[in-house]
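Work Package 4 report. The design task specified in the project plan requires that, given a folded chain encoded as structure tokens, an amino acid be chosen for each position. We show below one input record used in the internal validation round.
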């Protein structure tokens, strides 16, 4: 894993100055690759390529980057891991390729030289890279199918710039390009993250997963997909052999992700997904696997007990730490590392889990993707049940009945209770199609609530957000199929994988996700949803596989997620800090929202917005936005243009 930074400069008189700026900017990516730095430039073609290296394969100099072809002309900088590099290398040698080292980077370089962009379909792994093809005089950028590795880009009158992280690009952009993108901000308030090609800045874009970008000699940019999710079910799949076949694919995905020239461990939360990772990794390893678990003093959120049970069963080298962060002191640093507002509270424990694991290993396996592919959330059960619930009685529709009941029921005071679940189900039934997905997923600010808060609602609400476009693109999919596809194509790449990338790479740690192996993804997508849910239980297929590897006590645990007690924080040690940030007269909230209505929300009064079970989530979203904005202003003001 590594950090990328590069550019193609059009303003040649500025070339040396930008090269020097790039050398400085590489320091902002040192956490992604603490083992080495490399910078190469080519003024003739305006090319600058910088790289910070985390050494996983071929720890010698032959694995260093930027990597240059044997002709000395084409160049590659790359962040990721190609797990089938040994098989690809064998094929390339048969075609006459010569290798100087043993890294997957060199295999990728030779694949690009041999096959061009069609080689992307051959890769099993995670990657973001920039390749200068000297034969075609084209700069090529690409990301893996699912979006495990990030890549952002921008352009101005001086040239085209790209990097692994948004904050790195800010130094290159004129002030007007750093204006807030209203569509992105509006999306953030609803979903807690920013999806699609937009970022919070007007002038910085995100290269979508499964796509490549080319920049030719005429300064023309083209973005094309080389892979698209295929949700068409395979009717030939039979229940009788589905569990065994899924297990075989998953086991092989774990096996090839243990390939490394450094130690590999597992982030063990105590749930089914990470438990399976531990079980299967232990089976493939001749030495005890290292496992890492972060615990919380709050019993409602602590998963150390089931993690210990799994660790004991597989005789792992188990490590635990109690999460007692200096919340007010470290929160700003952690959240600003995402480069834009990011309100997933699990970013906090993920950061400390990664820091803890990085003290012992350089690579960890995790269970990302299991929930999105195999129905792991309670909302998947709700979505499955909707087709049976939307029937009505006589002339009274289900929606009308739900609205009527909501008028008389009190707001739930806690989030994860049966009453809260039933209340949320009624809200879903009462909502229209667009709002249903929001309630099913993040349950963030809806349009009515945002309209109530904004000073100028038209500035933000008159554009279509990324989720509207995504749901439209999914065509005829309905209920559970629609939710699974939307989760996989939106929340997974733009929330969960971003969280894991930043959390791990902040500490020079590589995270690998066997559930997101390209073969397993294709298999899961083609599996009819009838086999993914029993109607009342999440992940029945994975539970069946896990029954052969994990104790029954683990199989029957309720879904918790990697959570923190944000309401306790916001009403306790963070309360004063939170209020000061949000109500700062020179901050983004003061600019955009009505002060009196924000004050009402902070006081948790019974207004149109302050509904008890969601209060902490909504305030946390504004807190994150305010904290990020404070750091953003410092970063922009301290730039050296």
């Amino acid at each position: 894993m590594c950090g990328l930074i590069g550019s193609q400069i059009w303003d040649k008189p500025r070339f040396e100055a930008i090269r020097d700026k790039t050398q400085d900017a590489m320091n902002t990516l040192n956490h992604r690759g603490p083992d080495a730095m490399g910078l190469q430039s080519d003024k003739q073609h305006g090319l600058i390529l910088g790289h910070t290296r985390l050494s996983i394969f071929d720890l010698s100099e032959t694995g260093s980057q930027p990597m240059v072809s044997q002709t000395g002309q084409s160049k590659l900088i790359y962040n990721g891991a190609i797990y089938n590099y040994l098989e690809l290398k064998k094929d390339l040698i048969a075609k006459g390729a010569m290798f100087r080292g043993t890294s997957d980077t060199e295999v990728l370089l030779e694949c690009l030289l041999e096959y061009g962009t069609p080689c992307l379909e051959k890769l099993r792994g995670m990657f973001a890279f920039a390749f200068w093809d000297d034969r075609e005089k084209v700069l090529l950028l690409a990301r893996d199918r699912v979006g495990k590795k990030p890549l952002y880009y921008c352009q101005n009158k001086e040239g085209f710039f790209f990097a692994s992280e948004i904050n790195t690009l800010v130094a290159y952009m004129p002030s007007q390009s750093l204006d807030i993108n209203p569509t992105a901000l509006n999306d953030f308030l609803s979903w807690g993250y920013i999806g699609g090609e937009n970022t919070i800045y007007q002038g910085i874009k995100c290269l979508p997963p499964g796509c490549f970008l080319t920049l030719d000699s005429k300064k023309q940019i083209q973005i094309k997909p080389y892979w698209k999710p295929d949700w068409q079910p395979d009717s030939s799949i039979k229940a009788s052999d589905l569990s065994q076949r899924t297990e075989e694919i998953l086991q092989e995905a774990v096996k090839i992700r243990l390939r490394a020239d450094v130690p590999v461990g597992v982030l063990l939360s105590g749930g089914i997904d990470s438990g399976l990772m531990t079980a299967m990794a232990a089976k493939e390893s001749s030495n005890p696997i290292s496992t890492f678990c972060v615990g919380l003093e709050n019993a409602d959120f602590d998963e150390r007990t089931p993690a210990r049970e799994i660790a004991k069963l597989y005789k792992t080298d188990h490590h635990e730490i109690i999460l007692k962060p200096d919340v007010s002191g470290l929160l700003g640093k952690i959240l600003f590392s995402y480069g834009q507002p990011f309100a997933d509270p699990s970013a906090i424990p993920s950061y400390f889990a990664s820091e803890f694991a990085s003290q012992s290993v350089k690579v960890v396996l995790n269970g990302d993707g299991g929930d999105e592919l195999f129905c792991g959330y309670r909302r998947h059960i709700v979505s499955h049940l909707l087709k049976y619930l939307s029937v009505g009685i006589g002339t009274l529709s289900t929606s009308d009945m739900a609205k009527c009941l909501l008028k008389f029921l009190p707001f739930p005071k806690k989030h994860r209770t049966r009453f809260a679940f039933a209340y949320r189900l009624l809200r879903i039934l009462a909502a229209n199609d667009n709002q249903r997905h929001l309630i099913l997923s993040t349950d963030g600010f809806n349009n009515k609530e945002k309209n109530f808060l904004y000073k100028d609602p038209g500035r933000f609400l008159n554009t279509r957000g990324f989720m509207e476009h995504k749901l439209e693109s999914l065509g005829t999919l309905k209920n559970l199929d629609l939710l699974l596809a939307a989760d996989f194509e939106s929340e997974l790449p733009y929330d969960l994988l971003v969280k894991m990338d930043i959390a791990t790479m902040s500490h020079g740690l590589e995270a690998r996700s066997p559930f997101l192996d390209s073969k397993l993804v294709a298999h899961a997508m083609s599996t009819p949803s009838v086999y993914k849910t029993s109607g009342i239980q999440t992940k029945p297929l994975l539970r069946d596989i896990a029954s052969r590897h994990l104790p029954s006590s683990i199989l029957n645990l309720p879904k918790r997620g990697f959570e923190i007690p944000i309401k306790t924080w916001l009403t306790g040690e963070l309360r004063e800090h939170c209020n000061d940030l949000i109500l700062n007269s020179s901050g983004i909230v003061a600019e955009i929202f009505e002060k009196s209505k924000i004050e009402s929300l902070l006081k948790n009064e019974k207004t149109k917005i302050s509904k008890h079970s969601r209060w902490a989530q909504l305030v946390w979203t504004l807190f994150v936005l305010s904290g990020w904005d404070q750091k953003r202003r410092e970063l922009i003001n301290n730039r050296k243009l």
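DSSP finds 27 helices and 17 strands in the chain. Validation will be extended to a larger panel in the next phase.
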